[in-house]
From TrEMBL:
<dbReference type="InterPro" id="IPR000109">
    <property type="entry name" value="POT_fam"/>
</dbReference>
<dbReference type="InterPro" id="IPR018456">
    <property type="entry name" value="PTR2_symporter_CS"/>
</dbReference>
<feature type="transmembrane region" description="Helical">
    <location>
        <begin position="86"/>
        <end position="106"/>
    </location>
</feature>
<comment type="similarity">
    <text>Belongs to the major facilitator superfamily. Proton-dependent oligopeptide transporter (POT/PTR) (TC 2.A.17) family.</text>
</comment>
<keyword id="KW-0571">Peptide transport</keyword>
<feature type="transmembrane region" description="Helical">
    <location>
        <begin position="179"/>
        <end position="198"/>
    </location>
</feature>
<dbReference type="GO" id="GO:0006857">
    <property type="term" value="P:oligopeptide transport"/>
</dbReference>
<keyword id="KW-1133">Transmembrane helix</keyword>
<dbReference type="GO" id="GO:0016324">
    <property type="term" value="C:apical plasma membrane"/>
</dbReference>
<feature type="transmembrane region" description="Helical">
    <location>
        <begin position="218"/>
        <end position="237"/>
    </location>
</feature>
<feature type="transmembrane region" description="Helical">
    <location>
        <begin position="293"/>
        <end position="311"/>
    </location>
</feature>
<feature type="transmembrane region" description="Helical">
    <location>
        <begin position="331"/>
        <end position="351"/>
    </location>
</feature>
<feature type="transmembrane region" description="Helical">
    <location>
        <begin position="604"/>
        <end position="625"/>
    </location>
</feature>
<keyword id="KW-0769">Symport</keyword>
<dbReference type="GO" id="GO:0015293">
    <property type="term" value="F:symporter activity"/>
</dbReference>
<feature type="transmembrane region" description="Helical">
    <location>
        <begin position="363"/>
        <end position="383"/>
    </location>
</feature>
<keyword id="KW-0653">Protein transport</keyword>
Amino acid sequence: MLSVSCLQPSCFGYPLSIFFIIINEFCERFSYYGMRAVLVLYFKYFLQWDDNLSTAIYHTFVALCYLTPILGALIADSWLGKFKTIVSLSIVYTIGQAVMSVSSINDLTDHNRDVALYMAKCWVSFSFFSFLLCFSALSMIGLILIALGTGGIKPCVSAFGGDQFEDDQEKQRTRFFSIFYLSINAGSLLSTIITPILRAQECGIHSKQRCYPLAFGVPAALMAVSLVVFIIGSGMYKKVKPQGNIMIQVSKCIGFAIKNRFRHRSKEFPKREHWLDWASEKYDKRLIAQTKAVLKVLFLYIPLPMFWALFDQQGSRWTLQATTMDGNFTVNPILIIIMVPVVDAVVYPLIKKCKINFTPLRKITVGMFLASLAFVAAALVQVQIDKTLPVFPAAGQTQIKVINIGTDGATVQFESPLQSVNVMSMESTGYMTFDTSRLQSVNIISGNKTTSEVITLPGGSRHTLAVKNAANIVAKWVSLFINNLPDTINITMGDTAFETLMSFSASNYNLFPGGRKDNIMAIINSIPCSVTSKTLGFGSAYTIVINGCTGNTLDVTYSEDISPNTVHMAWQIPQYFILTCAEVVFSVTGLEFSYSQAPSNMKAVLQAGWLLTVAVGNIIVLIVAGASKLSEQWAEYVLFAALLLAVCIIFAVMAYFYTYTDPNEIEAQFDEEEKKQVKKDEDVYEKQTEAVSRM
């Protein structure tokens, strides 16, 4: 192994340089997971994409983040070396995070939040500068830069940390990978708590919005800190020099072996121990042995993407599941920080005392089984959630709710033979479902007055009909706020200002953070009136009627359109706990296994191979979710659990036949053979020289 190093200072038996690497990883993971924590919510609530599109884009981004490690590994092992690769791509990474923050500033892009119209303007624009200013385009550029940066440095940082240890520090190196993974989840824990809080703030220059610029800006700042910390430790690092374009050599070796085997396929040629041995006519034994080692591990990686297909749904399907539940907390990073040291210091030693040979591949197998179990738990929770969710109208159906904001009772009759309902003063009905094609008109009777209205409503949606008996019966289709006063009013709720409401008119719906109260203020004839709202439950929707003002206190009536979520997020703890246990025994072990089984000149490449399984896993999510066509989310969870269980069994069989190798020992043997060959060549040369001198 060729390396550049100074006499490394140590601390508690560990190279001091690894502490810079761990701090760097903590900051980088804070940056990545902080941005990712709000990404699917950004897609759903800011861009107003549906659940399936949000999930698809999210997993496409994650897949790209784990495809680019191949590029980073090639650059590190073949050209720049790990240190320069980390520095260079960290700069790209930091720029990407900054671009995401800038692109989410609503005032610079889409003033009206009309994303669809704004995107249309972007595509027809002939100005490249104007195109770059388009909100979604700039966001996608930011995500691509982040994917290049985070993916490019992924295989390098852990392998670079492993390079800091000497061959006789195997125990310290093993413990380093556990600490390294702990730093990942410490950064993840803080970021997944902090960035949603930052997102919940209201900010903006001309118009208020959820503060995505701050939620993306803080991770960008942490990425800059990560880069600075890493550079500060430069003088202490042991830097392994790149040893040529090893991937091209390996590819050529494999290609020649296949071609040579095909040429000598007849029975007259004797078989060789391994099909790669057919490359021995052109390539040296060392390269062939290294290629065998890498291919043996990569073959073992084939079933692993299925684990990541389930694991990374924490950030998509499980996050969306949480939006239909009551409560607000983060659990996975907390469990990881607890479980990593517990498993490392308690569980593994206990298993060893029981004389169970818990090999790395057995740990990975157990991790896959536990992940499958976690999705069974998620399916059980989803079944309970589905029982509490409102039933929305299908295509061709319309749901109607009636609110009586008058002083007299009212009877609402839909065209015969459809439904008829009686509604008392200041009360409302539940949603009634009708076939849209049969909804022609509605008759309203209140007191001694009667009125009729023609109905022209789109199918597949919900509508609220407000009725009032004044001088005449008035009926209107409404949403969030209803002005039940004779005067024009201006309404503000929290930091959100609504449009001016004429008498008996209504505002549009708006989104507010759940689980809290907000101040409602109405300006009536230049007089401010206010009231503190009731607690807005998670997932709920209300129509609020403004009835009057008494002593500067606003008189309001609430009509519940959608009930608050009743299944608490605490029910997600079992699935997160099981998946966390799976992650600890699967992912930490996988990082160490990939490093320990890789030849010295291909450690980053094999780390990239491990990370590539994550990318393929996210692609599997897109394929399975798109192909299954399951209407029930719990059924999709069960499908993924069953697929992983089947893959787990296949992997267990493959692992049973795997033989562990020590790349350092193999390379030492080749070094010894090369020394003997050099010595032999020198002896021959000396003898030939003596013979010539005697002539």
